Amino acid sequence: MTSILGKDLVGLEHLTREQITAILDTAEPFKEVSERAIKKVPALRGKTIVNLFFEASTRTRISFEFAEKRLSADTVNVQSAGSSVSKGETLVDTARNLEAMRIDMVVIRHGSSGAAQFLGDRIRSNVINAGDGKHEHPTQALLDLLTLRDRLGRIEGLKVCIVGDVLHSRVARSNIWGLTRLGAEVAVCGPPTLLPSHVEELGVRVFRRVEEAIEWADALNVLRLQLERMQAGFIPSLREYNRVFGVTTEKLARAPKELLILHPGPMNRGVEIDSDVADGEHSVILPQVTNGVAVRMAVLYLLAGGAPDWAAAGGDAQ
Amino acid sequence: MPIISRLLDAPALGRVLTRMASEIVERTAGHGPVVLVGIQRRGVQLADRLAPLIEAALGEPLRRGVLDITLYRDDLQAIGPRPVVQETRLPPALDGTTVVIVDDVLFTGRTIRAALDEIADFGRPRRVLLAVLVDRGGRELPIAADVTGLTVATTPGDHVKVLVGDLDGEDAVDLVRRSEG
Amino acid sequence: MSLQLFRGGRVIDPSQRLDDVTDLLVRDGRIADTGRDLGNPDGATIVDATGLVIAPGLIDVHVHLREPGQEDRETIATGAASAAAGGFTGICAMPNTDPVIDNQAAVGFVKARGVAAALARVYPIGCISLGQRGEQLAEFGEMVAAGAVAVSDDGHPVMSSQLMRTALEYAKVFGIPVADHCEDTPLAHGGAMHEGIVSTRLGLKGIPAAAEEIHVARDCILAELTGGHIHLCHMSTRGSVELIRRAKEKGLSVTAEAAPHHFTLTHERCEGYDTNAKMNPPLREAEDRDAIRAALADGTIDCIATDHAPHHYDAKEREFDDAPNGIIGLETALSLALRELVAPGLLSLSTLIDRMSCAPARLWHLDGGSLRRGGVADLVLFDPAGSWTVDPARLRSRSRNTPWGGEVLPGVVHATMVGGRTVHQRTP
User: Fold this and answer.
1) Which of A54, A118, A174, A202 to substitute to test the interface with C, most C CBs within 10 Å?
2) Residues contacting A199, CB < 8 A, separation 6+
3) Contact status of A229 with chain C (Cβ, < 8 Å)
4) pLDDT over 80 at B36, yes or no
5) Of C407, C399, C406, C424, nearest to C306 (Cα)?
6) Among all residues of chain C, which has the CA nearest to that of A91?
7) How many CA atoms lie within 13 A of C158 on its CB side?
8) Do A302 and B82 touch (CB under 8 A)?
């Protein structure tokens, strides 16, 4: 018995338009739950969910934790260091231990691309990818889609440009899949050193300069630029990056229309995005966070419709 | 071949609703603010029909709400692929009000139990009343309607179909029985 | 005196331009005669070779035997057994063991273990540099005297062009090839697969083709400068093929090998993060695979070498980034070559035997590679029309890391003989 999303949510690359739309539609009523005085519904009562985070991440973990608790599930947070090699317990063993404890769902964030699928292939519990290496971060893209749909009424035909370090970004990849699947026009913009090879083959346009992107887009999704990229030589300096690719008020002033500004957070104010843009009237950065909890509740709710019933696992498979 | 008997046609349905509206007025008038809450989906349509009838008798507008009980069902773990969750919207400050729940068919009583749990998460009404269009028996919980449109005896294999214009194109109540053999 | 007569097989020996259904006589471990009229000599064991191909035993110049130091994955004995099962009578053992083979005692150790196993011939390869650290030359002379047939720092590239130049010049004294693992480390660093559309979709850091081609170009230029013999390991890109072609046109002493996985698979095999598709150099694009095939056909790439790389199951059962590179290959090489090169008509069976036996022996000055009268009787008997199912658990190698598990492959080795002695016999 599988849910409409299958057993796991590993990414958006292989989801259909109908599946993605179902998640967004399901997130709507969950937004209302978060507005109530008692922010709780019994939908996932009795389910055990483990948040398995191999990479430190306060905001995503907290968002998932709220989503789980508001559905009345029992949550356990497991923080683990680094890769299998460095921590001494392989991901396979971690997976088997979780299964032995009859966990219903695992939310995993890991530094290796493919880790979520690796886990999902090996345990019966539902696995939700909260970010695997540079591969995908599906719930982030889903909340971005929900935010766009809320504010602009549609995704089909929207022009969305992802600005920044696309090469190292799982948020970018998931957004590219989600947006193209729902019929948006997608572009990327950033220094060539930070764009992945063959990126056009994913169905996106490439803008060399952020001014061109601003001229074209209905919305910008601004990615965080990590300090390590400068240290690794991808760009000469953060200051230069801000001058050339940063989303600033001056550059936005020349936009032909009102542009929505998204950012997955946390922001490097003054690097990829200026403070007055981040805090300005076209920024939907805070609504993104609100939508994040609703989207994660929707994903958990949908996946749980089809989770293995451990009590019946010994008997007939239905 | 299922056997379909029409229990109420459109005019009959209209008359039943009129009677139900006056019973609701009778039970609630003079006891403080009333909130009429329809249960998704057809309870909402029926509440929409009752509201103007009640308001006409009361002479003042009625506070309204809609409730989707999907997330409070007691069988969520068993049913598999998730049903779509519709809108839930209740007015703030439920405390001290009389909530009248409106639903189309009362059967096992589990939907109403879920509705009571959900309302409790929003506030503490002074009183909750239940108005249903059809009571088909078969209760599995100690739940009873305060205002009933029509009572009909059914067996477990039967299906009571309530049709409302906005959703189904006509107003009617049908009893669908599976034939023997 | 021992006498064996192989009757009615299709004897293919490119070194003598021989491809005929004929008889073959082996006396005391050496080839005595070939011909239709060898009759029925006294005391000869008759082997009915009808329907089989008899060829000089296959020779693989690039194998990792993991001993000393990593015997849980493979030993010299199990590797030699795996080789024999695949039809190989000679294998060259790369020195990146633990400790590495950078001195005459270590070379002697490998040689002795090979002799003790008494299966496929094991030829040690010594390191180019001490510890494979890329700084100081190892003692080529001492290692050759102890049995080394080539030098290589395989596993690592030789980043210093100065060191590569010195190695090529010094190796000339001993007439041995310098085998280079061509990879520009900073360009390739951290990469887990080929840099292309698949690596972009999977979110894995890619290794561009340029990382290999830069070193291929450098090595060809140094071969010209020094006159030494450079052997390019595991070629994988069409750019590399072009560079080698031009070097050969200039008459430079450049030889090259390619592995079966590079003429069979492409980077799409990495979908789903299958770690049995992770190797270095990585699986490339279809055009690269096609260029490798064409290069084997026209001789730009001289020979097929498996880069047999055993890894323990636990090691491969990991996140893609963390998994080690490489797959085993000795027991599937001939079958894959038959399926991917001979069956589509790219290579004749005779040319294939050249690439898998004659050329390695000739270019690296090894025993075998020919059925010439008086030569060692290193033979393989195989049925090109038969087929077998790859069951990783039943392979002779100690490791199981092959992407072809469960596949039905053509070509069944019936027997492998070294010096007239049977080192592998097919069990039905």
Assistant:
1) A118
2) A166, A188, A206, C200
3) no
4) yes
5) C399
6) C318
7) 31
8) yes
Q: Which amino acid is it at C422?
A: T
Query: Would the pLDDT of C196 be above 50?
Result: yes
* Beta strands in C376-420, from DSSP E residues, in sequence order: 379-389, 408-418
Chain A segment 95-114 residues within 8 A of C by beta carbon are 110-114
CA distance C425 to C428: 9
For residue range C253-295, list pLDDT tens digits in order: 999 999 999 999 999 999 999 999 999 999 999 999 999 999 9
Touching A (3+ Cβ pairs <8 A), the chains are B, C
- The Cα A154–Cα B72 span in angstroms is 30
Catalytic residue among C307, C354, C367, C378: C307
Predicted TM-score (pTM) above 0.90: no
Q: Which residues of A touch C314 (CB under 8 A)?
A: 90
Residue in C200, C208, C321 nearest the CB of A202: C200
Q: What pLDDT does C175 receive?
A: 96
Q: What is the mean pLDDT of residues A195-209?
A: 94
Please report the pLDDT score of residue B181 as a whole number: 53
Residues whose CB is less than 8 angstroms from the CB of residue A126 and which lie 6 or more positions away in sequence, other chains included: A7, A8, A9, A104, A105, A106, A303, A304, A307
pLDDT digits (tens, 9 = 90+) for A263-304: 998 999 999 999 999 999 999 999 999 999 999 999 999 999
- Residue identified by tokens 């340029």 is C210
- Whether the CB-CB separation of A223 and A165 falls below 8 Å is answered with yes
Position of tokens 């090595």?
C219
Q: Are A92 and A122 in contact (CB under 8 A)?
A: yes
Per-residue pLDDT reduced to its tens digit, A79-107: 876 555 456 678 888 888 888 998 999 99
Task: Supply the pLDDT for residue C38.
Answer: 83
DSSP element (H, E) containing B49: helix B42-58
Amino acid at C7: R
C274 as an active site residue: the answer is no
In this prediction, residue A313 carries a pLDDT of: 42
What's the residue count for chain A? 318
Burial class from Cβ neighbours inside 10 Å (0-12, 13-18, 19+) for residue C6 reads buried
Which A-chain residues 45-74 have CB contacts (< 8 A) with chain B? Answer: 46-47, 71
Please give the DSSP secondary-structure letter assigned to residue C106. Answer: H
Closest CA to A251 of A226, A204, A217, A285: A217
Average pLDDT of span A128-146: 97
A259 touching C (Cβ < 8 Å): no
